[in-house]
Structures are given as C-alpha cells and as structure tokens.
Amino acid sequence: MLSGEEDQEGGEEEDGGKEEAEANGCDGKGNMFWQGHRPQSTSKIFLSLVLSTIIALVNTTVPCNQSYTKTIHKGVKLSKLMKKSTAELLKTYQASEGDFAKQFCKMQMDNVPSSSLSGQTSSDRMLNIYTRLKEFQPHIKKVLKQQTVLLPPQSPLLKSLDETFQRTGHLAHRMNCILQILQPNIPIFEPAASPTGIPLPQNVFQQKVYGCVVLTRLNKFLSRVVDELRSFKGR
C-alpha cells in the first residue's frame, strides 16, 4: 500500500498550485488570463471561456511521456486537489445563490452525469473515470456560461468554475495516459463531443439547481476517484 501517504498529505496541499501546474503540463499557464487580468466585462469572461476550452483541448492531446509511477502519482495528487477545490467551490456556489435550499442540489436530473464509478477490473474503472470526466466537462462549461450572465464579472465564483473546467481536462488527460499504459493496444472510447444531455435554455431558478447538481455530483465523483487511484497506486 502507499507508504507515508498520510504524512505527505499536508505538504501536498501546500504545494497544490505547483503540483497542479506540473500535472497539467502547462506550468500554470492555464490560469494566465485570470492571474494577469481582473475581468472588467462580460465579453472578457467569454474570452476567458474560449481560451480555457482551447487550453483544455491542447492539454488533453499532450503526449504521455512520463513513467508509470510518476503518472499515477500525479493523477492521485491532482484528483486530491480537485476534490478539495470542488468542495470549496460548491460552498461558494451555494452561498452566492442567497436563500438557496441545499436539498435542491440533490434533485434527480437524468441529463447530468452520475457520481458513481463502475467497472470489474482496474482498467475498466480507469476507463470509467476517464469517460465520466469527459462527460462532466461540457456541463461545467454550461454552468460557467450561465453564471457569467447571472454574476458580476469580478465574482470569484467565475474564476473557480473556470479553474474547475480546466482541471477536469487535465485530470482526464492523466487518466488517458494511465489507460495507454494499462492497455496500449486497445483504442480508448471517446464520449460524443456534444452530448445530448446538456439542458435546453432554462429560467434562473432551474439554472441555479442545474449548476448545484452538476457541482455536487462532480464532488462526489472526485471522492471516489481519489479512493480508486489511491488503491490503484498501492497495488
């Protein structure tokens, strides 16, 4: 099993930003727009969203040139970082909505990806993680677009949503690399680029519920991903 893991967790959280940049393979440039400019208009936020999409596409096509051990290690650290940051994002989201009942975040929505993780073998579960992350990406992007209209441009929530969208793509790339190691001769199934599950235009209340459901399920799914990768690393 993973030796000294519990002692390392504190240090991993402290250098989470550095590790994120290394895991992303972009030296932290994915957040350059946000770090270098405080958005002043809705148009700039949409520009950031476009840049985030391009960066995500580039990062997911970066060659897998690291060792098996290093790939797994970075996957574990990035998933732990995402689990923590997504939990904080969910709290921020709920607080930003004002008098918003938390039970709405647990409403049944068939068009939102499930938080479950399935598969009989390690390879099956790694593939399920990869596929589910790719399925979550367009939903996170949709929530960001909706919140861009509802919130002021300088809202920290918009930056957090943008970071979550990018990190989801980075973690999906890590899972792709793991799959290439586990099954080098088997093609990796890619979800549809434009899934039919994205909801049609909604009223403000429906948008709030949809966003909270997406983030709640993503956070639960990431908890399962962390457990699975930890277990996988210890084998």
UniProtKB/TrEMBL annotation:
According to the UniProt entry, its GO molecular function terms are: ciliary neurotrophic factor receptor binding; growth factor activity
**Is Cytoplasm one of the keywords UniProt gives this record?**
yes
InterPro entries assigned to the protein according to its UniProt record, in alphabetical order: 4_helix_cytokine-like_core, Ciliary_neurotrophic_fac_CNTF
| UniProt-annotated stretches for the region Disordered | 1-34
Highest taxon of source? Eukaryota
* Any one GO cellular component localisation term in the record: cytoplasm
Q: Which UniProt keywords apply?
A: Cytoplasm, Developmental protein, Differentiation, Growth factor, Neurogenesis
In which broad location class does this protein mainly occur, judging by the first location in its UniProt entry? Answer: cytoplasm
Q: Name one GO biological process term.
A: ciliary neurotrophic factor-mediated signaling pathway
Q: Where is the composition biased (Acidic residues)?
A: 1-17
Location relative to the cell = Cytoplasm
Q: What does this protein do?
A: CNTF is a survival factor for various neuronal cell types. Seems to prevent the degeneration of motor axons after axotomy.
The cross-references to PANTHER family, in alphabetical order and at most eight, read: CILIARY NEUROTROPHIC FACTOR
Question: What does the sequence similarity comment in the record state about its family?
Answer: Belongs to the CNTF family.
Q: What is this protein called?
A: Ciliary neurotrophic factor
What organism, scientifically named, is this protein from? Hemibagrus wyckioides
